[in-house]
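Records of this kind hold a single protein each, on a pair of labelled lines. Below, a sample record shows both lines together.
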Amino acid sequence: MLELQPSDRRPGAPSSSGGDEMIRTYKGWKGNNVFFFGGRLVFGPDARSILITIFLITAPVIIFCVFVGRKFVDDFPHHRGVSVLAVAIGLNLLDLIFLLVTSGRDPGIIPRNLYPPEPEGIEIGGEPRLAHTPTQSRLPRTKDMIVNGITVKIKYCDTCMLYRPPRASHCSICNNCVEKFDHHCPWLGQCIGLRNYRFYFMFILCSALLCVYVHVFCWIYVKRIMDGEKISIWKSLIKTPASIALIIYTFICVWFVGGLTGFHLYLMSTNQSTYENFRYRYDRHENPFNKGILGNFMEVFCTSVASSKNSFRAKVSKEPVIPPRIVNGAMSSPSLQKVSQDIEMGRKPVWHETVDEELGDMDKDMETSVTSRDLSRMLPPEETEGRGIMHSRESSRGRRGGSWELSGRVNEDLRTRDVESSGIDASRDLISDAATVRSRTGTGIGRL
């Protein structure tokens, strides 16, 4: 079996050259993450959704405290009404803490390599190979790994240029490989993985408990109005519209967060992730990571949180900009290569202005080149303004038996034209491929 050794050159690794410009790791991060407080907090690209989540949690609690909980302070003796407010506020604060801890930390991002791993036995001299070279195409797409006596296949990630560990997956939204990837939560704007899964579960559990708590005490308040004024339940609800709104809101929310809590309890009891449950279906074959119900829960809640493999505040050398390279006589750039790889891997590509500018410049250059080289074909083969056509004529000497022997210069001109035409054709193919990628991207985004 072919063994591969990953490269140690990673974005977080210190640089050996002292003359390069040094920057913080998070400033040159190649993922789509958003950093705050100098790289101390790391969020996903959709971090703004956290504000909506905070509003959906906090606004009902404020309404409950103002219009419902405040009534219990006067009605319940021995400060029991104060405890009703205190528990509601405490659950709300605890829920927000778990929200921020889950969304603001590294979920278990695997540092990507700067270069693909080299197969063993191949000597690489001089400078290291760049990414997306023939060396990478020779790498096997999967490798076998034994986990608890069961063979597990690990896959190679073209974006991160590494073999992902078992249970890891690449998030197309954050553009990172994450250990024990569960899913990307749009409400938290962050991936859920090895380092924040327990906090995510505590977040949805507190949200479910808060919904049940507010829902129950709203009904208790309606019941007290019924008993105090001797009226029907419908008249009692009319007297407290805030309770009606909270009862409906919490009833709807508890089905979502409560059902999500129950689903993750099942996943933890069987030691599965959401990604594995939908993709691999361990109920059809043996789960190599299952440790029993007690062992699975202890693994989630009773083990220490794994340390981050990234030092986002460490200083590293700024990577130089890779210039476009010539492929088969046509110009290719890293931006176009990245978009093509995203399409091939099924990810949602992100078009930047630089890509459009590169395509536009290439279109203009190629149109000018093709027009200038085809200009001679467009001119009429007739004399203009008394001047003859200035085509070079070769001597007819050497004609034998009705055939012509072209001179060496003519042969050289023909070979030059063949090379130029092949370069033009390759450039045309590149422009056509880029236009196809652009159209596919527009279609995919329109469907989303």
